[in-house]
Structures are given as structure tokens and as C-alpha cells.
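Record format v2
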Amino acid sequence: MLPWYQNIPFACIFLCMISGIMMPLFKSGKAAFHLTLCVSLINAILAGVLLYFTAKESIRFVYVMGHFPAPWGNEIAAGKLEALLALMFSSVMALSLLGGKSSIHDDILEPKQPLYFLMLNLLHASMLALTYTNDLFTGYVFIEINTLASCAIVMARDTAKTIAATIRYLVVSLLGSGLFLIGLVLLYCITGHLLMPNLQEKVLSLVSTGKYMEPLTIVAGLMTAGISVKAALFPFHAWLPFAHGGATTTSSSVLSGLVLKAYIVLLIKLFFSVFSIELVSALHVNDILFVFGIIGMIYASIKAIREEHIKRMLAYSSVAQIGYIFMGLGLGTKVAVIAAIYQIIVHAVTKPLLFASASRLSEVQGHEKSLYRLRGSARTAPLAGIAFTLGGLSMIGIPLLGGFMSKFLLAESAVLLASPRQWAALLSLALSSVLNALYYIPAIIAIWSPSDFMLKYQEEGKQKKNITYSVSAFSFMVLVVLTGCASTPVSEIISSGLSLLGGASL
Amino acid sequence: MILPTYILILPIILPALFSLFLSLKAFENEKLRNTFVFFGVLLNSLVLGLIVSCPPSEALTLVTISQKLSLMLNVDGMTRIFGAIIAILWPLTAIYAFDYMKHEHNKRKFFAFFLLSYSATAGVALAGNLESMYLFFELLTLATLPLVMHKMDYAARFAGKRYLIYSMTGAAFGFISLIFISVYGTTTDFTLGGVLSGVSLTDEVVTMLLIAFTASFFGFGVKAALFPMCAWLPSASVAPTPVTALLHAVAVVKAGAFACIRITYYSFGTQLLHGTFAQYIPMLAAAITVVLGSFEAVRSNHLKRRMAWSTVSNLSYILLGVTAMSNQGLLAASQHMIFHAFIKITLFFCIGAIMEKSHKEYCSEIDGISKKMPVTMFCFTLSGIALMGIPPLPAFWSKWAIGTSHASSGVWGYVAIAALMISALLTAIYVLSISVRAYSKVEFTSKSDVRESIMMNVPIVIITVCIILLGLFGGIITDTVTAWLI
Amino acid sequence: MNNTAMLIATILPLLISVLFFVTRLKKSVLKVLTAITVIGTLTASVLCAVYCDGSLQLAYFTDTMKLTLSFSSLSVFMAILMNLVFSASLIFAFEYTEHDEGRQKFFAYSLLTLSCLIGLCFAGNMLTFYLFYEAMTLASFPLVLHTKTEESRKAAFKYLGFSVFGAGLVLFGMMLLGNGVFRGFTPCGIDGIDKSNTLAYLLMALGFSCKAGMFPLSAWLPTAHPQAPAPASALLSGIITKAGILGIIRTTFFVFGANAIIGTWAQQTMLILAIFTIFMGSMLAYKEKTFKKRLAYSSVSQLSYVIFGIFLLNPEGFMGAILQILFHALTKAGLFLCAGAVIHKTGIERTDALYGIGKKMPVVMACFTLLSLSLVGIPPLGGFSAKWHLISGAFENGAMGIIGIAVLLISALLTAFYLLPITHDAFFAGKTVAREDKKEPSLFMTVPLIVLCVLVLLGGIFSGAFETLATDIAGGLFV
């Protein structure tokens, strides 16, 4: 008899899907919002419970879907790492909903709102599925669902710009999917399996014989490339600023904070559960990630400095932060991947905070979007100002905040490498911090400096109370500080969880 | 008397609280506000002074960030020295600032960040390990940035931007030391002699550590205006003079030198560094800065910029002491830190008084001003002579100590000493040329009524007297410093 | 108790100068106070000779760094000499500054300089010496600046620059030796310092030689000395330069000890430089047409006689050096005062315009002539015995010595050529002048001049006494 908690992964996914299907029945956005929020919260709690149990027992279980055993059936696998990530996805989803509630009502047409929430639920489901799946083809299916749903939530805000951005996003994303699919098919041809444990066994035995090295390299390359394209690795990032910048707040938060990360989670599972991290290094796949990660870090920050539109600036910042993650993956050691996952979590709690705060600041100042016109808005909405400042400082890397910890872990893993590559990593981290400071600090100064725009909107701005935002902001801030100060439990979970992912080594 | 360890958090929290209060409540009455600020500063100085004289025996760990990292406060010899300097000088600057800022705008914002900077600087002094110092170092940059940009005109913004870029870059490179120490060292806590001595290191690793040290030295050295990153300091002189005086002559730049001392003697350890390129490259950079700073000071006609370049030069005197990489060097560096702080703050105060009262900014415009401002010019000249290193005024002792610590450093040591001598010559020129102009027979003309004010003169005279006393009792200072450090 | 005379000699001028700085006094009060001070200091110095022995600690900084004054025949000799010249110059200055509004500051800085100089003479260790040396530069800097013209400003900064640079070289050398260099002066060298560090020695010697106007650091002297008012030029050339010489003596004999330096490349270098300067100074003096500048170049040359004598590193040469110090101080001061009198009364500054000046100011020019003869080295005037001992000391030295003698003789010739024509022009040219048109300056100016001349004359006639003094000083230095 299965322990009851082993049902949680499937239950969560299923719950999201059901609630999504129910959306068209709703006439008003309000009810749809509340249902989605409830579902997210329940999922978060369930993920927390799962985390507790898997951490306590330190196991990773496999949950068979359907009645066909391996290697023909479908499986879900969950250990503490997956539980932790699921917790992250669900809770950030919930908080992003709260934070962007007022914007949803402003940006999306009333009749369309239930459909928007449908897409959000599907997105939630697919992210969880990508986290839990033990089957590569299922992974592909949910990648596609993820893509379509995320395009939809961008497009929900009905302007010409966002539609154009969506189309761009769609095209690039599908390109990525295509590459992934080709790689997947090739892998299936070579190994004959789709379930991850079986795949790993087969792959490793192939490697030991020395045959099929080129095809394996190509497979690894294609699948990595495919995911990287979707995850906005340089140079495939161009769609992101406009898509994230133009979307409604919840969408921006969810896209930046979660969607991109879901793909990377699958990539990590690919590296650990299908190939092995040593094999990946041996095939030099990670070198490409390293180089482009670094370039992305620097290039995106430079573009962010020039950007006047606050949400686009934050979007470019996201590209830079994703670059950190890829750099970590590119270093190719387990310690580095732990650091990368830590960065995933930190960014997931920081970026939605920033987006929500930017939106709130904009709300109290006549919906202006440019930094110049947002000057002084923090004085009308102090909580948003403080939240934005905290998020910015975390991005710059002030100790006691999450961003510092993830930078530290990345740098540490680079130094432990003890090879020339570490200098490239360290230098780019240093440079990137400086560049980050160069756009966040002027932004922070701007929102706190009194100006005429502030005076113009101050009266009505002070009237606009936003409880949901306050709750969301407060929770995010707590999370940012927690990830900064209490990193040990989290990194331990990641570390041991990661060990459970991999099977035999080379 | 044994002090409880939690007292260590007070010098950081107190000014922050006062600052918060000040930013939330608008004081209508200016005198009341000034009293409030002064009370806060004085109280904090007293607490800090108490900590410096009777340090608690244990460290205070505030937050354990991770297995290796924690936010910790502790008092050792360097803390006491730096703490003593800021505790004495901050209240005097406050008094001076009240008068100086009379005609400026946005005083509330100014004093709020003034207090916050005190908080951050105290944090740097009290930090017991590398990551805590790094945190307060970053916070110091952020707290002082609005002060630099206070005037909010084009020049101020430009200076602020430059300050930000330089400081952040410096801190980013300083971060590298944190990484390496946490990976290879036994602990990130500050221990005299370094934390790498018991560890067995391969040659490759040693080279990496040396490179990391050099990078971090230059990183923290940015705040100490080490060549080639010295340009930010003169541009920052567009800030109001109390800011320039305290922060850029005392707090911010000394924090940079302080950080360099910490990583050299208390983290990496001189055993590892002595005799390697990691010693000679920073030493050479410091020597270049010593000469370059003095040279640019001679060339600058603007009074405050001249003093700013003088600071650039003198900070590298401290760094020369640091790069001697011996106990003697540490003592010498600490001595100069103390003496220069007092001397430079007086010089800036005098310049500020001149600029504020007469609205003249350039050396060529102050002919004959000594008749209108006799006390100020006398103190300026005396402090200037002290800066030149004339015994028995204090800077002679520190310069002597720095020079002798390099006598055994071989050829590069000679370069260092030669740099000191050239700088002494240039210092004589740039200081005395101001005095000569001020004392010239020409009648000083200006549109406004030029008169000295008590509020400005009192701090100036007090610190000048301190300088003389420091010089005469230089021996006692040296002994105390030695006892504290070793 | 006995040693307080040294302290009084040092402090008295300082206190009076502070008084002059903070108050405004009437002309007559000023003069009286100044006169009392200089006579008082002179008396105190003389009393030192009688009563003092041993040393007096002024301040304690650390174990190795103390400020002390200590008595020795060398120090009291220098102190009395400086006092004599000071007294003459300052009394001369009474009339010279008759119409000068800034006279109070002038006397204040002069007395401050005197204080520093006495302290320097009596200094018991290198720290005290260096302290007073630097202080003296700062105190005399405003003297050069006194006329506040553009040229005087440039000259003052040149003086400052060179002096600080020279002091910097000294400091460099001292730093190489470490804390031990600050122990008390010991006739055959201080124990515990690295006496074989010739580089350190050379740096210190060269550093001090800057003040003494030796090539290559002499360029300030011809610019600064003429710019200062004549009494100040007398002081600068006459005694402030001797501070540099004293520094060299202290370094060579009392820090390192003669034995450490004999035969080293440092000694050779200094000899060569000194010889070159002797020649160069005289040549440039000969070609120079500005009166005070000619005298300044003359100083450059004459001072290097002293340096030459020192670096022969034998008792004879040292005696010659001491005698040269004595007579050059008196003579050069006197010459500058004469020049000052001429400029003050007639405004003439060039040596080719002095026709008939002797007829207008016979006393002044007579003194000038006597002093010139001493400088050239004509017996029985003092300058002769100095040069005699220098030459005999040089004989003992070998090749360098012979070259030195040759240069000395050439220089003597040149000296005659640049000084005696002035006398000739003064007395044997130009129209006779009626009594009413005589522009003789007042007694305040002439008496000091006469006193100096008398001293030079007596010094020459009774040179035996001074030779004994010099031998006494040299005793214990050459074992």
C-alpha cells in the first residue's frame, strides 16, 4: 500500500487541470481568480507536506501512472528536490496572483478573464508536471503545453504590442521545442527508452562501449539547445523584454519567475537522471552554456542600463539572472548546479516582487511606465518603494539578502573548480554586480526622489489601497530575507535531493 | 568593567534609529533638529568610546547565514583604533555641519543619511569577519551616495554616478577575497596573522590566492583611492564640505584602507604574501598614488580638489605602510590613519569655512584673506605644516614609521621611500602656496561680509589642538597602538 | 641647573617672536626688544661656554626618540658665532627697515629663525637636529618672501622646494638606518647602526649640502639670497647655510664616525662635488653683474671650501673648515650688509654702476674692502689662516687634495677679480663728493659693520687662539 503522501504529486497536477477546465463555466473574473488562488495555495501546502515527508525519510519514490510498468508505462518521481521546487512554483504562483490582482482587472477584458485563469491553471499544471515527470516524452508534451499557455498569458493583455511580442515568443519557443523533439527522437532511436531511469542505464552502457559517442553528443546538444532557446539564454533572449515587459503583472511575474525556470528544471533532470553530470562535462555541452551564460549576464545588464521603461528593465534583468543560472550549469560540477538551483529559487522570489512593486508604483502614479515619470512614486506608496528597494538590493548582492547568497554559492563553486575557468566566472560575476548596481540604484533613487509627477498624482494615489499587493509584497520580502539568511537548510535539501536524482556515475 | 556583548550592536542601531525617526518626523524648528542630530551623534560616540576603552571579551553573532558565513561583531585592536577615530571626529563634524548647512536645502535628508553613514562606518569598524565587513562596506557606499549627490545639480549627479561605479566595482573585486578565504581558509573571522597559515596549499593554489589577494586589494583600495582608481575622490568634492571632510577624509576612505589592512593582516596573512608579487604590485601602485596625488594637488587650483588629491596621496601613505607586510608596517599604517584623519579634517574644515564665508573657490582668489579669517588661516597653516611631516607634529612619526618599515624591503622599498620624499616636497608647495596667498598684503575684496563664525571655529581649533597634542604625545599614542594591536 | 643656559638661548628668541606675532608694537619698542633679545641670547650662549656641560632633555617621545640639547665645544662655538652675526644683522636692520611697514613680521620671523638655529647648534641627537632644521626652513621662508613681489615669491618657493627636497634626502638616509640614528651624537659614530650603509650616508650628506649650497643642489641660493632684504641675506648666507654644514659635520663625525667614511666612494664623491662647486661658484660670481647675486655665488663657492675641508677627513683639513666657517660667516654677513647699505642709500644694484660710491660712503666701502681682502685670503686677515689650514690638510690627502689645492688657488684669484674691482670703482673712479652730499648711513648700520671687520681683523691676528679652539673641537673625532 502506498503511503498517502505519494499521491500528492499527481493530485496537485490533477487539481490544477480540473480547476482549469472549470474556468469557462465562470462568468466573472472574480470567482475564477479566487478558485485559482485557492488551488495554488492548496498545492503549495501539499508540496510543503510532501517536502516534509520526503526530507524526513530522505527517499525518492516513483509513482506509476496507469497500469503499465516500466519501461513501457509512464511515471512520476518525487524526492525532496522536486518537492522543494514544486513548493516554490506553487507559492510563487499564489503570491504573484495576489500581487497582480488589481492589474488583472485593469488589463484584461472582463469576459476574457476566466480564460486567462484557465491558462494560468494549465501553466501551473505543466510546471508541476515538468518537475515531477520521470518520462522524457511526457516532459515534451508538457513543454508544449507550457509554451502555449505562457504565450496565452502574455497575449491576455490586448494591445498591439503584446500581440506582436507573443507571436515572436511563440515562434522562438516552438523553434526550441522542435530542437528538443528532434533530440528526443534520436535518443529514442538510439536507446529505445523514454523513461529516465531506463534511459540512463542505456546511455551509460553505450558510453562505456564507446559507440554512438557522436550521436549522443548531438542528442545532448540538441536537447540542451532546445531548452536553452526557450529559457531565454543569450542569444535567444530577444523576445523576452517585450513579452514580459508588456504583459500584465501576474503574467510578467509568472513568466520571469517560474516559466523559464520550469524548462531549466527539466534540463537539470536531463543532466542528472538521463545523462550524468560527468558525462555532460565530458561531452562539453556545458561549455556552450557557460560561455553564453556569461555573455548573457553582461549583455543583458548593459541593455537594462539603457532602458527607461521600468518593466522592460526588469525583464532584461531577468535575462541577466538566467545567465547566472546557465553559468552555474556551465561550470559542470555538482556544487555548481546546487548553486544554480539556489539561484533559481532566489530569482523566483525576487523578480515577482519587483514586478509587483513596479506595477503598484505605476498604479499610484497614473499608470506611468517610464522611470522618469515614476519619480517619487515610492513616497505615495511606501511599501511598494521599500519592496522595490529590497528586491533591487538583493539583485545587487547585498549580504543578508537572497541575491548575495546565490552569488556567493556560484562564486564558491567556481573557485572549487580550481581551473582557469574560475577567473572568467569570478570576473563576470563582479562585472555583472556592478552593472546591476548601475541600473537598480538609479531606479531606486528615482522612485524616492520627489518630483512634479509625484505631486500631480499624489492625491488620488494615496486613495488607492491595495491589500492584496501588501500581503504579497510582505510575503515576498520575508522570503527574500530568508533565502539570504537561512540558506543552509535549503542548500542541504538541494544537495541531497540532487544526489538522489542521479543514478550510477560514469 | 566588563561590558555585555550585546552592546556591540548599539553603535550600529542607534544612529539608524535616529535617522529613521528623522526621516519620518519633520522638525519644524531647525535648532531642535540640530540638537536632536547632535544628541544622536554624541550618544553614539560615547557608546563607541566605551566599547573602545573596555571591549567586551566575546564576539556577538547576529545572524548565521550559512555554515560558513555569519554576521558577527567583534572588537580587536584595529576596531579600537578606527572606532576611536570616528567616535571623536563625528560629533565635531556635526557641529561644523550645522553652521555650514544653514543655507543649503534638504537638510533633513542630509542629516538622515549623515546619521546612517555613521551607522555603516561603525559597522565596518566592528565587523568581526570578512562577510560582515563586506556588508557594511556596501551599506556605507549606499548611505553616502545621497550625501555626495546632495546638491542634485549636474556636477553632483555626475560625481555620484562616478562614485557609485567605482565603489561597486571595488566592492565586487573585494568580494573575490571573501570567496577565496571562505573556500581555503580555516575561518572567515579576522585573526591577526591570517587564516591560511595552518592550511596545506599547493603551489597552484598559492598563486591563485595571491592573484585573488591582489584583485581584492585593488578592489577595496578603490575606496582608498588607490591608483588607478583615484579619480572619483576629487569629483566627489562637489559635495558639501562636511561631507567631504568627514566622509572623504575620514570615514569612507579610511574604511577602504581599513579593509585593505584587514585582508592583508587578518585574513590572508603576511606570511603568505611577503616577498611575492602580491606585495610588490600593490606597493608600487601605492607609491605611484603617493606621488600622483601630490602632483595633482599642486596642479589643482580649486581649493577642495586640491585637498581631495592630497587625501588621495596620504591614503596611499597608509597603504604603503600596509604593503610593508610586517608588524612594523601595520603599526605605521595605523598611526598614519589616526594622524591623517585629524589633520585632513582640519584642513577641510578650514577650506570649507573659507569657501562658505567668502564664496571663493579657487586658490588664486583668496589673496589676503588672513586678515578677515585669522584663526582659520592659522589653523590651516599649522595643520598644513603637520601634513608636511615636520616634527614634532604627528605626521612625522607616522611617516618615519612607514619609511623605516620599508627600509628592509629591498629595491622596491627604496622606491616607496623615494615616493614619500617627493610627496613631502610637493606637499610643502601645495600647502604653503595657499598660506602665502592668504597672508599676502593684498586687500581681500568680496561682495559679502566675510567673518569667522564660532560654530565653525570651535571644531577647527579643538582638532588643531588635538593635532599638536598628538604630535607631542606621539610616543604615548605609538605605545597604545602597539599594545592594542599586538 | 647649569644647562638651562642652553634652554634660555633657544627659547628666549622664540618667546619674543611670538610676542611680535600677536601684538602691534611701536617702532621704538620693537627695536629695544629686539636688541635686548639678541644681546640676551648672545650672553646666554657665552654663559653656556662657561657653565654648561652635559645635556638637557626637552621632550620624550619614545625610548629611542627624545629631544635633547647637549653642550660641546662645537655647539657653543657655532651658537656664539650665529649670535654674533645675528646681532650685527638685526641691529643693521633697524635702519634698513625704517620705512618698511612689515618690519614687525620681519623681526618676528628673524627671531624665530634664530631660535631654531640655536636649538640646532645645541641639538644632542639627529631627531632634535632635524626638527630644528625643518623649523628653520619654515621660519626663514617668510624672510625671503618679505618684499612680496612676484620674484620674491618665486625665489621663496624655490628655496622651500630645494630645502624640503634636501631635508627629504636626509630623511631618506635616516630611514634606511632605522631608529638607531636618533641616539645621541657620539664622536666616533653611534653604536648599533649600520655604518657600512654608504648610500644612507651619501643621501644624508647630499641632503644637508643642499642648504650649504653645494652642486648639484645649489641653484636656489643665487635666486633666494638676493631677493631677501639685505639683513636677511646676511643671515641666509652667513649662518643659515652653516646649519647645513653643521648637519654634514654631525652626520659625518657624530653619527657615522670618520673611520666609516674614510676611503669610501662617498668621500670621493663629496670631494669632487665640493671642488667643482668651488670653481663653479667663483666663475659664476666673476661673470655676474648684480651685486647681491655676485655675493651669493661667492657664498656658493666659499661654502664648498668648508665642505672640502671636512671631507679631507684629517685634523688639518677639519681645522681649516672650522676656521673657514668662522671667517666666512663674519665676512659674508658683513659683505651683504655693505651691499645692503649701498642699495638702501642709493638704490644701486649692479656692480658696474658703483663708480665713486666709496666717496659717498667711505666707512661702508672701507669695511667692504677689508672684508674682501679677508675673503681672498690675504694675511693677516682671518680668511688667510683658514685657507692655509685647508691647503695643508689637502696636501695629506693625495691626488684629490692636489687638485683641490689647485682649484682653491684659482678660486682665490677669481675672488680677487670679482671683489677688488668693486673697491677700485668705489674709491678710484667717479667724482669727488662734497661732505653734505655724503650718503653715509646711520650708526645703526655702520657700527655692526665695523664690529664685524674688527672681529675679522682680530681673528686673523690672534688666529692662534682660534686654531686652538678648532683643535679642541677636532679632538676626539679622528682616532
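Chains C and A do not touch (no CB pair under 8 Å).
The beta strands of chain C are 55-60, 66-70.
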